[in-house]
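User: Predict the structure for this protein chain, please.
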Amino acid sequence: MRDSEFKIEELNPFQEWHLHGSANSQEQALHRAQDICKQIGRPVRILTATNKLVAQFDPSEELPTKK
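Assistant: Here is the predicted structure, written as structure tokens:
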């Protein structure tokens, strides 16, 4: 995640957040995180480059939890 503004992380089976990808725009990050959450069936969150929580997706919910 060199110049990306947003980090996309998944909550792995060991209950640790793991970097899954990155995005340059919030819109792109939200779309990718939602797709990842649906595909893997685990919580996914988006952080800024300074580690501020932007949104979190839970596979049992349809909409992200925005912070």
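The CA atoms of residues 23 and 29 lie 5 Å apart.
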